[in-house]
Amino acid sequence: MKRWLSAFLALVTLAWGWTLLSAPGSAGAGPGNPWAVREHALTLTGLWSFALMSLVMVLATRPVWLERPFGGMDRIYRVHKWAGILAIGFAALHWLVELSAGVIKAVFGREGRLPKDRGGDFLEAMRDVAEELGEFAVYALLAMLVLTLWKRFPFRAWRYLHKAMPALYLVLAFHAAFLAPLDYWGQPAGVLLALLIAAGSVASVLALAGWIGRRRRVGGVVESVRESGPGLTQVTCLLDEGWRGHRPGQFAFATFDRFEGAHPFTIAGADRGDRRVTFEIKALGDYTRGLARRLEAGRAVEVEGPYGCFELPRGRGRRGQAWVAGGIGVTPFLAWLEALQATPEQAPDVDFYYCVRDRAADPFVARLEILCAALPAVRLHVISSIHNESLSAEVLGTEVLGDRMGKKEVLEVWFCGPQGLAERLRQGFRDMGAAGIRFHQEVFEMR
């Protein structure tokens, strides 16, 4: 994520720097002039904020063609989230730079103030409107950021407020188009800005029209609903002919209630070619907590997908492999194991660690034991915290690689579970100095 965002911001900065150096009169507006510094800071922070907001809008369209480069739709959404946070942060900085005119005037006076672009009465009028709208949009974005980071704010209300983002983006596009310096439009920064406005505006229109993911949506009916365990609801759906099937480990957006909207769930089973998908849904919020009571067989459902690149690894040779699941994070591994039942000889040599609170009460342990029994290459380890058992990076390294641990062998860890456990394992590997660890994680956080 950091690599993608850093590269994107570097590209934007490069275009701005190129334009600045090639602009007429740039030498006279150097760092010794506080008004020039303010003007350049105003332009750069605005360009950073708008570029990131354009990226946010494009990623919101769920671009499947970017899944492989990013590593899955879950990672696209993670970049989407942090790009939005950075965009709002730069927008706030842009606003503060705008307010600095009074301070500069009081300290340095008006000398050295850069002349305004002249473009006629119409352009001046549009700039005034763009400036007012831009200030309003910044306030709205800051409020949206607070509500997004405040996890107690109800998801349903947040989802409807979030639908205003495309409209806010179009306001920002208007602001950027009319307030960008006139001499930018023949330079790299202007070309980049035009591309950003075009891409972001198209994405915003798609979002406002409800067309995001439309080609990947299919209808169907709920075939069965049952409580598979405490706080767990198993929902099996029979989908229409348009369903394209799924690869083990992928997820889909399911809509059981139009008012509630779509929610992402991992498909907890292999694709058998019968257009049936099963979701194991954990009660994590108001909506999922009462789902078993509200759903019944025969109810209409809409499923969009599949998405994701958390797929069954094959042909890994002598590399050590560990699968780690925590709680409901076991669902993609259930799909992997089911997919291998028909061809057990293709199963990779792997140690599978399933972390639960109480092994005896867990609804998935028995199913995992049956699936793994047919796959001799897959060794199941159930870690039960109620019995003071825990999983650590040292355990993964020594049990999976054994005497090869000190020979800098590659250990591949496929992880799906609580973020806290993932961070402990990553930190443990760093403390061990295990540079050869490849940590693949399903990052299932859409807000």
UniProtKB/TrEMBL annotation:
User: What keywords appear on the UniProt entry?
Assistant: 2Fe-2S, FAD, Flavoprotein, Iron, Iron-sulfur, Membrane, Metal-binding, Oxidoreductase, Transmembrane, Transmembrane helix
UniProt topology in membrane: Multi-pass membrane protein
Primary site of residence: membrane
Compartments it resides in: Membrane
Is this entry keyworded Transcription regulation? no
Required cofactor names: FAD
Q: What transmembrane ranges does the database entry give?
A: none
Q: Where is it found, in Gene Ontology cellular component terms?
A: membrane
The protein's matches in Gene3D superfamilies, at most eight in alphabetical order, are given as:
Nucleotide-binding domain of ferredoxin-NADP reductase (FNR) module, Translation factors
PROSITE patterns, per database record: FAD_FR
Q: Which InterPro entries match?
A: FAD-bd_8 (IPR013112), FAD-bd_FR_type (IPR017927), Fe3_Rdtase_TM_dom (IPR013130), FNR_nucleotide-bd (IPR039261), MRET (IPR050415), Riboflavin_synthase-like_b-brl (IPR017938)
What GO molecular function terms would the record report? 2 iron, 2 sulfur cluster binding; flavin adenine dinucleotide binding; metal ion binding; oxidoreductase activity
UniProt-recorded name of the protein: Periplasmic, ferric reductase-like flavocytochrome
Taxonomic lineage: Bacteria, Pseudomonadati, Pseudomonadota, Betaproteobacteria, Rhodocyclales
